[in-house]
Write a structure and sequence with these properties.
- With about 900 residues, this protein is of the alpha/beta class.
- It has 31 helices and 24 strands.
- The strands form 4 sheets. The chain has an 8-stranded mixed beta sheet, with helices on one face. A 7-stranded mixed beta sheet has the order 16-17-18-19-20-21-22.
- β2 and β3 form a beta hairpin.
- α11 runs antiparallel to α12, α18 crosses α20 and α24 crosses α26.
- The longest helix is centred in the middle third of the chain and has 28 residues.
- The protein starts with about 25 loop residues before the first helix and ends in an 8-residue tail after the last strand.
């Protein structure tokens, strides 16, 4: 028998029961995180916290010497207080108040230094109510402002420079001093529950305002004397992306398309290799998001982990000492992280990998959970606010699920047999192994011996390889299942998506990614250093990428596994946390451990996915004006919880390349936060973009039972909406003035358009479907964009009095005529309008009319989403940040 020349690797012992005494850093990290969470809800004086820390430290020392059995209690208090103190002492981004005052939509002369450059790109844009597409070239910069309007000022601005296609753009480099007459505005912030706060995110990035300027009003006043390291790294990253895209665009067409990179492939590779997502279209992102595999497309913790894993594997293959292998992996991972732009997610992943490897080096294989605690504690001590970031939570949870659940399950089942395949022909290893594992080795050797007579020597020798392949596939399946189940809560909280196809997609694509990433890195290196031979690795990369894309599109196009869900309830979150903790604890017990652990994990995921009742106020009709900027969207909830959405907003300025969808990113987020999984009905008042732009995403996400329309002319956007409605099997109901029907316990009366109304050739404001919704003695009149002609028609119908008026056409002077306002005589008025909009809405003339009529007026640009409760006798109100009662 052939003998292996290497010494056998000692077999890992069975997972020991979970004891906090043996996991001090995991225990400390949990207490530290609990302290951060406490400060998030309650304020504590830092001085009192310091006193408490000192007293707890003394108690810990006393307990260590006199009462070790209760030493965990003062230790828990110590780290709890340390977490609270770090959270209270952590610095917050500067508010940049001076710059915010200048971001008012008017031009200001600014000077500053370029701290980040972007590529010169060709962009398309169109204005609302226009099908004409305008093309120009643009460059995006980040500028650290030193003065504005000749006054000293400090702040950061994201500056877009625009010029005609034929204009010559000057060369702009990091460190250049520039001057420009800039129109600035604050980053968008939609004041709705559950909607992402872009303004806070930009402030965290050092950006206090967004600006735009024509090239003719921009100039470089002095060349760069020096540039920051981050800017240089970004320039290198950008140059690498552009060269890879250029290489793909000029590739020979002689190669079959399967082995040839095109521009779209190159944009995906730039996101995957350099972290540059700016070239990704929304169409590419959607396919990956639907299959729960977007993390495979962009530089993420998985990419860095794969890269570090490859380095660590090579270090072990070349038999480098443990310390040297760990150091080499950390340093090369740092280099790759720097190359990808060293963004916050990459930094977090790098620190997680670094601290985990150091913890593994210190504790070896005795406690991976302790290494995770070490990594988490280090990250939280540096930046406590990272605890509330989705990326940190998902990265930590993935590692915890693999180490805390998947690894023990494998260790109790197939992992010993996988380890036993090493040095299979070294007979002296057998006596040192457990009997069942030793018997497996003996049996496998016998199978190989007998197979040689039937299959030949070479075929028989492949039997151990096939067994190893099956066990590795089992390992990948186990890890994928455990991670997908553990990620159910963050996927529901942050993405409102449970993707059943994520498991098969990851099973098929992750192994491909393990081969694709090294191949893509080799391709990029060849493109940068030896372009003439780059076509060879590029062909391999293209084949692997197209195979992965085929898999993703296969599942994405089916749409069978893409389930959008509402925000889980607090009870569901608590049950999920208990289920995860039970799984981690029980798997380390002896009897029925695997079955109970996996059942607990699956139950936790199911609880998150189960529907729960929506948030509403029983006994009251709710009308909520949603803040969608310059547009309209209203949510109506009946006293028993039936839901109606009237319009879904839209972008004020639309761009085909925009990654923002107001229906997905604003309206849907609010509805999910309210616990809504399906709408009973949606209504489209008319076909203007600021009313129906977000509706396609709403239809797909919430599959309403009915779509209510008035009389609208054909238009490309409206026709697409109707086609999508029919595709989804949604019933279309057309309504005209005179229609009246019940919606739950509410009565709905249609006031416009009249049965004789004939729309013009293009969408118009007077197409608006106007509804009067009443409950008991209270009612709300929802006017859409109806103008004076429609209001005269409604006056002829009579009985218009309503407690709440949704003011027509965003408060324009063409609506809310004095006669109409007298007939409605509302107590409250709501105006849906965007901040600093192009049209100057609401007009002062309309506001004066409302004030003279003593109507209390609520505006979405100032107050955000505003909720009105009509209980049948009176009307009460709630601000945007006051959650409706259950």
């Amino acid at each position: 028998m052939p003998q292996a020349a290497t010494q056998p690797v000692p077999f890992s012992p069975v997972t020991a029961p979970l004891r906090l005494h043996f996991l001090p850093l995991l225990f400390a990290a949990l207490c530290f995180a609990a302290g951060i969470v406490g400060v998030h809800f309650f304020w504590f004086s830092p001085a009192l916290l310091l006193i408490g820390i000192s007293l707890s430290g003394v108690l810990c020392l006393l307990a260590a010497h006199m009462a070790q059995r209760i030493s965990l209690l003062p230790l828990a208090v110590l780290f709890l207080l340390l977490g609270s103190f770090c959270a209270e002492a952590a610095s917050w981004p500067a508010p940049q108040a001076q710059l915010t005052q200048l971001a008012d939509g008017t031009p200001h002369m600014i000077e500053g230094r370029v701290i980040r450059t972007g590529p010169l790109r060709r962009v398309e844009s169109s204005l609302p109510f226009s099908d004409r597409v305008h093309e120009e070239q643009s460059m995006q910069l980040q500028v650290r402002i030193t003065s504005a309007d000749m006054l000293r000022l400090a702040g950061g601005i994201s500056l877009g420079i625009y010029a005609p296609l034929e204009a010559d753009f000057p060369r702009i480099a990091c460190g250049d001093q520039v001057q420009a007459n800039v129109t600035m505005r604050q980053p968008d912030r939609y004041l709705d529950q559950g909607v992402w706060n872009e303004r806070a995110y930009m402030l965290d990035e050092g950006i206090g305002a967004l600006g735009s300027v024509k090239l003719s009003a921009f100039k470089v006043i002095s060349a760069a004397s020096h540039a920051s390291l981050t800017c240089r790294l970004h320039s290198i990253q950008q140059e690498a992306s552009l060269r890879l895209i250029a290489f793909a665009e000029r590739q020979s067409t002689k190669l079959p398309s399967f082995f040839r990179l095109d521009r779209e492939d190159a944009t995906m590779l730039t996101a995957m290799l350099t972290g540059d997502r700016s070239y990704l279209s929304r169409g590419i992102r959607t396919g990956f998001e639907r299959t729960g595999s977007f993390h495979l497309l962009v530089v993420s913790g998985m990419h860095l982990a794969i890269f570090a894993g490859i380095i660590f594997f090579l270090a072990k293959t070349f038999r480098l000492p443990r310390v040297i292998a760990t150091l080499a992996t950390i340093l090369l991972s740092l280099g790759y992280a720097l190359f990808t732009g060293f963004g916050h997610p990459v930094q977090r992943s790098l620190w997680m990998i670094t601290l985990f490897l150091i913890g593994r080096l210190l504790w070896r294989d005795r406690s991976s959970l302790n290494a995770i605690g070490f990594a988490a504690l280090g990250l939280l001590a540096v930046n406590p606010r990272v605890l509330f970031e989705a990326g940190f939570q998902m990265t930590l949870l993935s590692v915890l699920a693999i180490t805390g659940i998947a690894a023990p399950v494998a260790e109790k089942t197939f992992a010993p047999y996988l380890a036993a395949l090493r040095d299979l022909w070294m007979l002296r290893v057998d006596p040192k192994l457990p009997p069942r594992v030793a018997q497996f080795r003996v049996s496998l050797r016998l199978v190989v011996e007998h197979a040689r007579f039937l299959l030949g020597r070479h075929a028989a020798n492949s039997v151990p390889f096939l067994v190893r392949l099956i066990l590795r596939a089992t390992e990948l399946l186990l890890v994928s299942v455990v991670v997908e189940l553990a990620m159910s809560l963050p996927m529901a909280l942050y993405f409102h998506r449970i993707t059943a196809v994520a498991l098969p997609v990851n099973l098929l694509v992750v192994p491909l990614l393990g081969i694709l990433l090294p191949s893509a890195i080799l391709t990029l290196v060849a493109v940068l250093l030896v372009p003439v031979v780059a076509f060879v690795p590029a062909a391999v990369t293209a084949a692997l990428l197209h195979l992965a894309l085929w898999t993703i599109h296969l599942f994405s196009d089916s749409m069978t596994g893409d389930l959008r869900i509402a925000t889980p309830s607090a009870i569901a979150v608590a049950v999920w946390m208990a289920g995860i903790a039970l799984a981690i604890w029980i798997i380390r017990q002896r009897r029925f451990a695997i079955s109970i652990a996996l059942a607990s994990l699956a139950s936790a995921a199911i609880v998150v996915m189960l529907p729960h009742s929506i948030h509403y106020r029983p006994g009251a009709l709710e009308v909520t004006t949603i803040d969608v900027g310059q547009g309209d969207a209203l949510l109506v909830v009946t006293p028993e919880g039936k839901t109606l959405l009237v319009d879904a907003g839209g972008l004020a300025v639309a761009s085909p390349e925009s990654k923002f969808d107001i229906g997905e990113d604003v309206v849907s987020q609010l509805l999910w936060t309210r616990g809504i999984r399906r709408l009973d009905a949606v209504a489209v008042t008319h076909a203007h973009a600021d009313h129906i732009g977000g509706m396609p995403a709403v239809l797909i996400n919430f599959r309403p039972r009915e779509l209510w329309i008035g009389r609208n002319p054909d238009s490309p956007a409206y026709d697409r909406l109707l086609r999508e409605t029919k595709t989804l099997g949604i019933k279309i109901q057309q309504h005209v003035a005179g229609d009246a029907f019940r919606f739950g316990s509410a009565d709905i009366r249609v006031l416009s358009p009249s049965p004789e109304y004939m729309p013009k050739s293009a969408p118009a404001n007077d197409d608006s479907l106007v509804l009067r919704v009443s409950y008991g003695q209270t009612s709300a009149l929802l006017e859409g964009d109806a103008e004076a002609p429609s209001e005269r028609g409604m006056l002829a119908l009579g009985n218009l009095h309503s407690d709440l008026l949704k003011v027509g056409h965003h408060g324009s002077k063409t609506s809310t005529t004095p006669e109409f306002l007298r007939a409605v005589a509302p107590e409250y008025a709501a105006i849906s309008v965007g901040r600093h909009n192009y049209y100057g809405h609401p007009k002062m003339e309309t506001l004066n009319k409302l004030e003279d009529a003593h109507v209390r007026t609520w505006r979405t640009d100032l107050l955000g989403a505003s909720t009105f409760y009509l209980d049948g006798r009176s009307v009460t109100t709630a601000a945007w940040d006051e959650a409706p009662t259950q």
